[in-house]
Amino acid sequence: MRLLSSVAMGRTPITKENFMRSSIRGIVIGAGTMGTNLARLMFRNGMTVTVLDINPDVLAQCHQALQSESNDQQVRFVNDWAEVGECEVVVESVTEDLTLKQRVLKEAEHYVDDATLILTNTSGLPIDELAEVLVRPERFLGAHFFNPADLIPAVEVIPGRLTSANCVEQTIDLLRQLGKRPAVLKQSVPGFVANRIQHALMRECLALLEQGVVGAEALDEIVRYSIGIRLAINGPLRQRDLNGLDTHLNISRYLYRDLDNRATPSSLLEELVAQGHLGRKSGRGFHEWPDDNGETYDRQERALLEGLLALMTDEHN
């Protein structure tokens, strides 16, 4: 038996007008780092939010992270669907595991109204495979936020094969009211767009490290203060237009054959993980991460992101 009626009694349609005059209710499933920032994004933009997680410790950490800037009317923290109540949208944000996500999505569909949007914040799992367990896949799609989710503007919107046009439109409206820049994909491919590009870039970075062409510190400097800045302003395709497509074609004719194109993970990456050098979480990865600088780095990174976004002109809005 559903917790909520199958008739949308009291449900608020997700439109710009309703965002302005009433509160849209959202559920975030998963109280980890991404779920915490999703909840923060929602209540800062006028939504009421319920955070659901079966792990009491994780839920408590989320509560602690948000309590200084929210109140009980804006955000609730629960560990059971019986405590959830009505909502207009569910955002699933649990661990990136297909079986787990399917189980969570199936449970969510059982408890929410038939008209409720169900979004998955997956980084690249196939939307149609996730939708296989759903009775009403037409109201389900992917909404890939980037961390910190309350700050990074872009969200990849990935419809499944059975997702309705109305579901896509409502999701776009919701994201825009949350201050996001939704980008709709024409089809779902593994990794979507951002992670495919990110991994292609990282594959070449790892190859250059393995070949001894450059060190980690210098490589980060080159990317940050050359292509990184220009990509933030223009994106890759506009940047190619500015440089000239004939120039890009001429370079690609001699360069592509020398680029890394392996279909397996980097041996350097495999070795680092095998040694327990996992990055910040272990204190060492490509760089050293002292125990006492984690929160300081987070604050500095956030300030830089906010400054960069503030510099974007109206032309790019």
TrEMBL record:
SUPFAM superfamilies named in the record: 6-phosphogluconate dehydrogenase C-terminal domain-like (SSF48179), NAD(P)-binding Rossmann-fold domains (SSF51735)
Coiled-coil region: none
Domain of life of the source: Bacteria
MF annotations from Gene Ontology: NAD+ binding; oxidoreductase activity, acting on the CH-OH group of donors, NAD or NADP as acceptor
Swiss-Prot/TrEMBL keywords: NAD, Oxidoreductase
Chain residues that bind NAD(+): G30, A31, G32, T33, M34, G35, D53, E96, K101, S123, N147, K281
Entry keyword NAD: yes
Site-annotated residues for Important for catalytic activity: H144
Entry similarity comment: Belongs to the 3-hydroxyacyl-CoA dehydrogenase family.
Protein name according to UniProt: 3-hydroxyacyl-CoA dehydrogenase family protein
